[in-house]
Specification:
Layout (H helix, E strand, L loop, with lengths): L8 E19 L5 E21 L4 E4 L11 H13 L4 E7 L10 H16 L6 H8 L6 H6 L3 E5 L3 E4 L6 E5 L7 H6 L12 H6 L7 H7 L1 H11 L4 E3 L6 E5 L2 H10 L6 E7 L3 H12 L1
Parallel strand pairs: 3-4
Antiparallel strand pairs: 1-2, 2-4, 2-5, 2-10, 5-6, 7-9, 7-10, 8-9
Helix pairs in contact: 1-2, 7-8
Amino acid sequence: MLTKTQSQTIRWPAPAKLNLFLYITGQRNDGYHELQTLFQFIGRCDYLTITSNSSDIITISPELNEVPVESNLIYKAAMLLKTHTSCPLGAHIELEKNLPMGGGLGGGSSDAATTLVALNYHWGLNLNEDELSKLGVSLGADVPIFISGKAAIAEGIGEKLTFVDPTEHYYLIATPSCHISTPAVFKNPALKRDTKKRPHQQLMNDKWLNDCETCVKKDYPEVANTIDWLLEYAPTQMTGTGACVFSTFNHKNDAELLAQKTPKWLNCFTAEGLNTSPLRELLSTLNKIN
């Protein structure tokens, strides 16, 4: 018999992130790259509507095009949590996909993190944030930041977090019409891998750059053209390994005005920067209610 909490149907947000800066400070012997990057969330989200059940089976709808369910990060996260906790329950997960795939906004990692956080709640498993993050990092280096739900400087391969409070600007986020493989960017021999590590205070005060941007612009003219167009109006750079780029504004109205002026070949949306993620806000509300 499911408890009241276990039988709830809840629509959970899986927010996008921006890398406000991204520096590659070295490469480890195992091939992973050492980073210093600043994560901030934005209000644009995928949504996972979850209903747990006693079936011991995970079902997801709709199916993602050309992605077998076993390769879906949502399914992987759910099965990882089930296996780790020997949980006998199942769940149906309905995905509302709003974030572009291969855009550098962390959509897949965010979906996985929301799955872990949500099913931990639905199934009454009571794993703490650190336990969930240790599970999540096996699915992707960005998953722990989405589990924490707080803006942070990330180091190591992205798993060492120091929480910070950058200004919550407004952004115009543009999505060039290309899909960029993160592994391919990190394998690119032209990628800058020797940026000097800096103290956090210096990182926050220096001009913010992305070490991946130069080689991505060279290989993907769609990204280069997008950045060149937006730079005429506002500070603009790539997030993550691309393809999405963002322009920064102090006022919401300025971001929305530029969105109205963008050419037809440029898809874009506006969003507010958030130092606390919508997922963390919802979980806090649910925990207070229950």
